[in-house]
Every structure is written in C-alpha cells, then in structure tokens.
UniProtKB/TrEMBL annotation:
Site (Lowers pKa of active site Tyr): K87
Amino-acid positions noted as binding substrate in the UniProt annotation, renumbered to this chain: H120
Pfam families xrefs: Aldo_ket_red
Classification via PANTHER family: ALDO/KETO REDUCTASE
Gene3D superfamilies assigned: NADP-dependent oxidoreductase domain (3.20.20.100)
Name of the protein in its database record: NADP-dependent oxidoreductase domain-containing protein
Length: 365
C-alpha cells in the first residue's frame, strides 16, 4: 500500500546526505534553443527546486552551471543548498575515463564537487585512441564470473582496438562506423563502477549510483562494490510502473528515482496510439476533484509510492506547478486507480544499444 505521507528530501544510504525528492530535469531531446536551459534552471531555483538533474550527453551542462552560479552570486542560494546530479556517458566507461568525465562535467558546471554521479547506461561506446592505448595494459573484461556481461562479446580486445586505433577523437558522444552504426566498446560494468568509486575517493562526487540498469546488472555491481550504489534512476510512470525493478532496488536499500515521470508527452517520436497517463480520463478526473493539474496528480502518485523523481519543463508556469505537490494527498483508492493504468509501455528503449551485450532491457526487470 502506498503511503500518503511524503517528504521533500530523502536520506541517501551511505553518506546520509539529504537529497530533494523532486529534481528539475534538463533533458530537452537536444532541441532546446540557446539559453533556454539556462533560463529554465534559474526559474526552477527561484521556484524552490533544490535538486538539478543533468548529464554529460545532454550537452547543456555549461548553461546549467552558469544558471547555478548566477543564482549563487545573486544570493538566492548557497552552493550547499543545491543538490546537483550528473551522469557519466557511454564513451567514458573505462575506469580511467570515468573520473575524466566527472572532471569535465565539473568544469562545465563550474563546481568543485558533485552531490551525485550516476552511470547513465550500462552499455559502452567507443573511447579515444589515447585511452584505448592505455587499456591495452589491462584486460577489457573482468575475469570474475559475477562481473561478466550476459553475453560476452567474442575477442573483445581484438574487436575494440581496430575501430579506435588511428580513428578520430573518441569524445564524440555517438561514435559511428561508415555504415552509420554506433561503435561499441565492451567495458565491464564493475570496472566502470570502480571508476565511480575513484571519483568519490578523489573528492569529486559525494554519492554514486546507477541509471537504466536491470536487476542482474545491479547485483553484479553490488557484489563487487566497496561503495554501494545509493540510487537507481529508471523510467517509471503510470503507464510503465516498472514495479518489479523498483521493488528489487528497494530490497537492496537503493533509493529509486523516476525519469520520464510524466511519460515524456512532448517527445518527438510520440505516436497518436501511444498510451498517455497525463491525458487519461482517470488522471484528469482525479485532478479535477483535487483542483490540481493532471501533471501534479501524477507527480504526487510517484511520491506516495516512495519514489523520487525528475520532472522537466521550460515553461515558467509549469516549472512552478510541478513542484507544488505537497499540499494535497491521494487516497489509496485514487493511487490504485492510477497504478491500474500500467501497460508496461516503455518509452526509452535506447534502440542504438540493442545489439550491445549489456543492453539492459532484454531481462524481465
């Protein structure tokens, strides 16, 4: 049964740091105009958001960082008031390059440390020539059975090196071969996690976690980890409750945060036949009775399920509206009605990684 009592913050396992349960998301499908994210982050901080969720691959950390700096400089907040999350991208998955990615994000964000860093996806893309030359000295796949990927790529060293040696700069977020396919690398996720732990040891990150990992991948990290992942960020919304994975993570003392919390209603690839909780009569009816918007009802549903969440908008009114969800409650019956909208409809399938052996969605959860 979902609890009607919700909190504005949650204590993260390990450090005990208080993380705001609602984060302002900065993913815009790479469609935002210049300075739109900058203005959005400023409006979010002014509206009361104290958690900003970003990622290297969103390609807007510089705008995010400038907005945070400006709100610190004008006295609206202090650095310690703001909880900043970012994510390590797929072409930074070797142990050495994880820390490099974190350092690059810190430069763009104008920060000296990050409150939380996540591995964005368990899949790996091509690294730079220099990094791969260094990697020749170590095994690309950890020998421990618990850290092996579900399907070990054949001759991993031979398969990676020809793609990269002598190639262009591997800092391209989506490296492609001549036939237009993403060029994969095959880094052990445990090796990547060790790079995350290195970032904590270096004082670059206070907390570390995972994003878009399945239960088996999470377990492999847990077995090998010195610092356990404190949070899992995955897709959750009323049309995709992802309940088995949510319960698995909670059973491992991992906080769960939802991305795509409203079902990404503005996504460019949306079909007219796709289910949409925000437009569903059940949600619309409950919203009308509460005197709230459908979005507010869905966000409250997340909180009463014990989930944290990311929500994004560039519209000032909606930015304010999306954090104004602490002055009403949903009944158990209303929560159940919303949960009943589940259709196991996943929005982010990450098709570009489907042929990678670490593709996370081939497992049930």
């Amino acid at each position: 049964m979902a609890s009607s009592a919700v909190s504005k913050t949650v204590a993260l396992p390990g450090t005990g740091d208080q993380m705001p349960t609602i984060a302002y998301g900065t993913w815009t499908f790479l469609l935002a105009k210049p300075n739109e994210v900058y203005e959005g982050v400023k409006k979010a901080i002014e509206a009361g958001y104290r958690h900003i969720d970003c990622a290297w691959v969103y390609d807007n950390e510089q705008e995010v960082g400038q907005a945070i700096a400006d709100k610190i400089n004008d006295g609206t907040v202090k650095r310690e008031d703001i909880f900043v999350t970012t994510k390590v991208w797929d072409n930074y998955h070797s142990r050495e390059r994880v820390k490099l990615n974190v350092e690059k994000s810190l430069v763009k964000l104008q920060l000296t440390y990050l409150d939380l860093v996540l591995i964005h996806w368990p899949t790996s893309f091509k690294a730079t020539f220099a990094a791969r030359e260094e990697q020749k000295q170590v095994s690309p796949i950890n020998s421990s059975p618990l850290s092996q990927p579900p399907t070990e790529p054949p001759s991993a060293t031979e398969k990676i090196l020809p793609y990269v040696c002598g190639a262009e700069d591997g800092d391209e977020n989506f490296p492609k071969s001549e036939d237009g396919k993403i060029i994969y690398a095959f880094h052990d996720i445990v090796d990547t996690w060790k790079g995350m732990e290195d970032s904590v040891a270096a004082g670059l990150a206070r907390n570390i976690g995972l994003s878009n990992f399945n239960s088996k991948q999470i377990q492999r990290v847990l077995v090998a980890a010195t610092i356990k992942p404190c949070i899992l960020q995955v897709e959750v919304n009323p049309c995709f409750t992802n309940e088995k994975l949510v319960q698995f993570a909670k059973s491992k003392n991992i906080v769960v945060s939802s991305h795509t919390s409203l079902g990404a209603p503005g996504r460019p690839w949306k079909s007219s036949t796709d289910p949409s909780a925000i437009a569903d009569p059940v949600v619309v009816d409950i919203a009308a009775k509460k005197g709230k918007s459908p979005a507010q009802v869905i966000l409250r549903w997340h909180l009463q399920h014990g989930l944290c969440l990311c929500v994004k908008s560039l519209t000032p009114e909606r930015i304010r509206e999306n954090i104004d969800v602490f002055d009403f409650e949903l009944s158990d019956e209303e929560v159940a009605r919303i949960s009943g909208l589940n259709k196991n409809f996943r929005i982010y399938r990450q098709e570009i990684s489907m042929e990678h052996p670490e593709y996370p969605f081939n497992e049930e959860f």
